[in-house]
Design a protein that fits this description.
Elements (H helix, E strand, L loop, with lengths): L13 E4 L2 E4 L10 H5 L3 E2 L2 E4 L2 E2 L2 H14 L8 H15 L4 E9 L13 E9 L6 H6 L1 E9 L16 H13 L4 E5 L5 E4 L3 E6 L2 E5 L8 H12 L4 E4 L11 E6 L3 E8 L2 E2 L4 H16 L1
Parallel strand pairs: 8-9, 8-15, 12-13
Antiparallel strand pairs: 1-2, 1-7, 3-6, 4-5, 4-6, 6-7, 9-10, 11-12, 11-14, 14-15, 15-16
Bound molecules: 4'-deoxy-4'-aminopyridoxal-5'-phosphate.
């Protein structure tokens, strides 16, 4: 048995909060914060490999863009936030780890209107997260199709990495885990394949990569990286609407995400998959890239 992790509000170290490095336990917000009541927080996850963040500029840009999608702007530029995260990783001595920037509206306003509530930003970093056990990660994880779906772009800010959208992910993930699976596979509002709770989806069909059009879920930075790697490896990539029935003819299935990296899938409901060649080649290429850049 491994010892339980220390709670996230009770650790040693430093957190960057609104432009200052503060002791970890003092990085608090008030219970009357707009972001807590009305779900307007946006966040990022950045992986650190060998002391260096991978694609940190893209993540900083996406944090700012996510806030804009929710109709507020951050009091720091993407470059400022990227520099703060770099300095934090250095100070904390993170070698292989994870960086979590988060932004929210503050306490000037507790009503649905967001106008007048100032934006706050924090960045925290900690050592390596394992989304799944090492054993599950290498043999492939098991997905269960969720009863929850990704929302209509007309009813939710689907382009933002918005905390409010993670309600659906947490419900779906808890449902899948309660049924003995590792993660959930969510369909989109039209019943097409969408994504997992923290990662994008790829199928290998006749040796080519097929991935759903990201029109109602996050177009992940890892997804785009893997599409570029596939092109370099001469693997055809098809971005399109994919019916769940096509899982029957997929030779391989995998997920991509900052935390998941290139994660093989060994089962979706009662279908099973081996960890195939295309997945392995892309996982290796991705593993090399994250440590090379
Ligand atoms: N979808 C969801 C719901 C996610 O939480 C993530 C992780 N940020 C992704 C997709 C993949 O995005 P990225 O590759 O940028 O980490």
């Amino acid at each position: 048995m491994t010892a339980p992790l220390a709670p996230f509000d009770d650790r040693d170290g430093t957190i960057w909060l609104d432009g200052r490095f503060v002791p970890w336990r003092e990085a608090r917000l008030h219970v009357l914060s707009h972001g807590l009541h009305y779900g307007g927080a946006v966040f990022e996850g950045i992986r650190v490999y060998g002391g260096r963040m991978f694609k940190s500029a893209e993540h900083a840009e996406r944090l700012c863009a996510s806030a804009r999608e929710l109709n507020y702007s951050l009091p720091f530029t993407a470059d400022d936030l990227d520099a703060a995260a770099r300095e934090l990783v250095r100070r904390e001595g993170i070698v292989d780890g994870y960086v979590r920037p988060v932004a929210w509206r503050g306490s000037e306003q507790i009503s649905v209107s967001g106008a007048g509530a100032t934006a706050h930003v924090a960045v925290a970093a900690w050592e390596w997260p394992h989304v799944f056990s090492a054993e599950a990660a290498s043999r492939g994880i098991r997905l269960r199709t969720s009863t929850w779906r990704r929302p209509d772009p007309a009813t939710a800010p689907v382009r933002a990495k918005a905390a409010s959208l993670y309600n659906i992910c947490t419900l779906a993930r808890d449902e899948a885990e309660a049924a003995g699976y590792d993660d959930a596979l969510l369909l989109d509002l039209r019943g097409g394949l969408a994504e997992a709770t923290g990662a994008n989806l790829f199928l290998v069909i006749d040796g080519a990569l097929h991935t759903p059009t990201p029109d109602c879920f996050l177009d992940g930075i890892t997804r785009r990286t893997v599409i570029a790697l596939a092109a370099e490896l001469g693997v055809e990539v098809v971005v399109r609407r994919i019916d769940p029935a096509e899982l029957d003819r997929a030779e391989e299935v995998f997920l991509t995400g900052t935390a998941y990296e290139v994660q093989p899938v060994s089962a979706v409901d009662d279908r099973t998959y081996a960890v195939g060649k295309v997945t392995s080649r892309l996982a290796e290429a991705y593993g090399r890239l994250v440590r090379a850049e």
